[in-house]
Amino acid sequence: MKGLVARIGCVALVLALLMLPLAAFASGGKEAEKGTLRVWKAPYSDNDYGLLEAAFNEFKKAHPQVTIDFVATPWETWVEKYTAAFAAGDPPDVFSAAQSFPYKFIQAGQVVALDKKGWAKALNDIYPKNLLDAFSFGGHIYAVPYSFDGVTLVYNTQLFKEAGIAKPPGSYDELVEDAKKLTRDTNGDGRPDVWGYGLMGNESGEAVNMYYTHLMAYGGTVATADGSRCLLDSAENVRGVQFMVDLINKYKVSPPIGLFEGRALQSAFLRGEVAMMGTNPWFQMMARQEAPNLKWDSALMPTAASGAPQHAALGAGEAWLISEACKNKDLAWSLIQSLTKKDYLQKYLEAVSVLPARKDLLGEMFQDNKFMKTNLESTAFYLPLPKWPFIEWDLVIQEIQQSMLGKKSAQNAMKTAASELNDKLKEMGWYK
Amino acid sequence: MRSPDGALDAERPFHQSIRTAGRNSSFFKRVVRNRDAYLFLAPKLLVFCALMLAPFLATLAMSFKAGGILQTLKFVGLRNYANILHDSVFWVSIQNTLVYTAIVIAGSVVLSLLVASQLAGIGAGHSLFRACIIFPALGSLVVVSAIWRMMLFPTTGIIPSLFSVLGLPPVNWFGDQNLALVTVAVVDTWWGVGFYSMIFLAALRAVPNELYDSAKIDGAGKVRTFFQISLPLIRPSVVFVLVMATIWNLQAFDLVYTMTHGGPGYSTTTIVYYIYQKAFRIDDMGRAATMSVAILIIVFAITLFQFRTFRTELEY
């Protein structure tokens, strides 16, 4: 009898174990029926969900059976995380991407073309053409832009006053002269305690914004308009690199690389250790939090030569996209419509200090904010970035740094970068 | 079961039994004869095949192809192998990896031996000291790197402040191309010492006390006792640490990724970091797979060399 009970017990246990995955599967299926939208976004603040909550609530009110699973994905690992998710066939339903990031997924056919769904008709009235073009590929629109940014020169007015400088530099020659006056070694340890002009150190993401900015001041572009050939070894780009190298090594007015990495540069500016630098608009949020009493002002980045038309500039937009793997694309589209509604977007962008992509908000937001207005003005000098399905800037930054370290000439560094990237384009069959 | 030489399988060490059987019978007969052994090994072999062999074969196959992770890869023969031979950054990354490994291993082994030998002699408070020593190894490398970055941060870190107080010149720990790799290696060494010390400590405690007593009677000092008794007798543990540390550090990635991003320039680009860049940033899966095969061969060759060089039989 005991044996029989034991046997029945064993069979029951085995059956229970077999049922577990089935139960899990059943619950997953039920979840899908109810509808869960997975939303991924790299954050601009510590509380992006909270700042967008009103939009999510409006969506939830209209779709009470749908659950929002919001994940703030770090900027530093954006490419790896999303690539792994798409490669594994488990991407988010809705995701936010900065301009350089999503082409890999778009070209692999893993992002919904909004115009094919008939959703893109109204977008032309709401968003500037250049921003829609930035997220278009092969004649199709893949994203709803919600923000964009440029690069602005910010300067410490107190340090300028102490150095007897009346106005911000308008050209690179003036920048060098001003930076020389501003660079000071106050404690006599052989290293300046105040740097005239800040350049970022060996961090990948934001450093490229500032590096490219200086290349573009000379009229350089990363690639041809159709992205079929890398032009980083052009004379204009080489001059841009040489200018940065000279700031560090010849004029010694910029910190050597490694001293201020990534946002440490902005923090150094806010501590008064850097007198001027180029920065993106979200710097304003940082300044409010870290140094609300610091006296600083902003201006357009200088031109490479006095009177030249092209100010140093670089900018990019950010947008919402829907993955092809999304089971309920109509719901995803409905959510994006909520997230990009004028009122919700305005509240979010004001909090994180980024320019709005909507035309109607552009005329309303930041009207009495000189820094943001200057940032907006700088976007007129944008030069387009290539729509490559890979991230080129790690390689470019490292080559530029080789030059800054004195290991290569600016020309050789850019030649290597261009050659590597053109080899990649040849392999892809893009090179012309 | 009796073999042709007359000995029972049960009387031999297991590996000898299989070897002998292998020489004299067909594969099938051998499997049948040693079915119990194979059955015991089966789960491990299955796990090995699923998690190690299959990915390796996939990587090997990928090394003959070109394309991105989301694209259909096309066969290119040996082109990736030819390309990496002409890739100067690949060679720089190999050089950086070897230098990094050498620094970490030398530092880890010497410091761990020192710490373990001191800990072995401590009576009271031994557990407390042991806990303190192992503590760094309990933290993840990402956390460790964040803490060290803060401590070394040029203008606000505690170490530069200390340098300033002592009147030493400022050092750009992560920006100096000659120093950045060493800085990362030192952090890795600091992290690993706790773990390796525990291995050495366990080995030192297994050395019979009689040997130390005899040495004492013979008038041997502490240093001589360490080099002539302790070190030879814990040699298997030293070899183990050497081999494992070599394998781990030749694959160094975490600290480089979190502390320097391979910079400045390529001065801290290790081979695995370069593989990561090729795979995830440049989206060149073929080249990344080819370099993975290359690093596997390098690790295998160095490990084999270490085993052959340091192979020893331990006798008390």
Walk me through this protein's architecture.
The complex is a heterodimer of chains A (432) and B (316). Helix content of chain A is 46%, strand content 13%. With 432 residues, chain A is of the alpha/beta class. In chain A, the strands form 3 sheets. A 6-stranded mixed beta sheet of chain A has the order 2-1-3-11-6-12. In chain A, strands 8-9-7-10 form a 4-stranded mixed beta sheet. With 316 residues, chain B is mostly helical. Chain B has 2 domains: 9-72, no CATH class; 82-310, Orthogonal Bundle (MetI-like fold). In chain B, 72% of the residues lie in helices and 1% in strands. Chain B contains 15 helices and 2 strands. In chain B, strands 1-2 form a two-stranded antiparallel ribbon. In chain B, strand 1 and strand 2 form a beta hairpin. In chain B, helix 3 packs across helix 15. The interface between A and B is large, with 41 and 33 residues.
Structural key phrases:
heterodimer; A: 432 residues; alpha/beta; D-Maltodextrin-Binding Protein, domain 2; 2 domains; 4-stranded mixed sheet; 19 helices; 12 strands; 46% helix; B: 316 residues; mainly alpha; MetI-like fold; 15 helices; 2 strands; 72% helix; flat
